Target: EGF-like domain-containing protein
Amino acid sequence: MKIMSRLYDKFGFIERKCERCDFGWKGVSCSECVPLAGCQNGYCRTAHQCECLKNWGGLLCDIDLDYCSNHKDLCQNGGVCLSNGVDLYRCNCTADFEGKNCEKKKEIDCTMLDCGMGVCVMGRAPECECPLDRSGTHCEYLESEPT
Model:
């Protein structure tokens, strides 16, 4: 029986009858398909086929269609991963971080803040100092004088 099993394993013969399975099929009853050679992220339903798993494409299912789903934790510091093409991604970083993977803390200074009619003053963070007739985060509102 071991010799027959070895023959079956190696050559795909049907164990009891010593008949060879049709090309592309294997197993005791020749009901298991053989996937296309080189199939990476897929399976077969018929012989020499490669049906891709979710988020994979290409003849051999070797093209990553959703890089973010298949590569966790790419974006750091609260950044959100966005797949943008085959094997590509970009990180949408929070306001305080930058870099390909949101790995660098942004240096925030007055050049990054538009104060309109006001003046930027650096404290723990830059903020606008508005003239008496203006208000708002960016001195964008004109204050009306009391009548």
